[in-house]
Amino acid sequence: MAKFNPARRSVLIGSGTALLLAKFPVAAFAQSPTAVCSRVGQKIISKGKNYICVKSNGKLQWQALVPAKPPISLHPSKSSGGTAPAPATSPSKVNGYFVANISELSEGVSKIVVAKNMQGQSVSIALYLSGKVVTAHSTVCTHMGCAVGAAGKQLDCPCHGSVFDAQTGAVVNGPAQSPLQSYQVAQVNNEIYITN
Fold this sequence. Notes:
The protein is mostly beta strands. The chain has 1 helix and 15 strands; from the N terminus they run αβββββββββββββββ. The chain has a domain at 72-195: Rieske [2Fe-2S] iron-sulphur domain (Rieske Iron-sulfur Protein), CATH 2.102.10.
């Protein structure tokens, strides 16, 4: 029976690692986004870089877009309830998912969009454009959880008649007593992202 030699083992491991690094450059081991890539064309921002979901060799995976670090404009949604998240400290730390192009919105008119979040789940978001600034809110009514609908400058709940201001998420008419949940928005050129 052959005797175990620790020095020989170290040489073999080192040689194997060197061969792997030669075959697969260090860039191949770079950290990719942790978001779920669930649909071709899905877009996200991860650590300030933008990615698109592509199909390669029959598998969905993230591919970095160029430029990798686009100019990012961050702003919290306006909310009378004070529920808007604080702006991120640096665009290089921004993570978020694409929801729409600004060109799809009309000034002063609410719009409901469906997008894939970072977990790959479909989510409904209420968007509102005012003076080139987009605000975003949940479409879940704070009264009983029904889905609100777009109605010009307002968001209306068809279940019990609550009405919300589309720009601020504030309650205009009850029975709801709390504003809609606000989301922080990142604008990257013409694209709108909801940040985490």
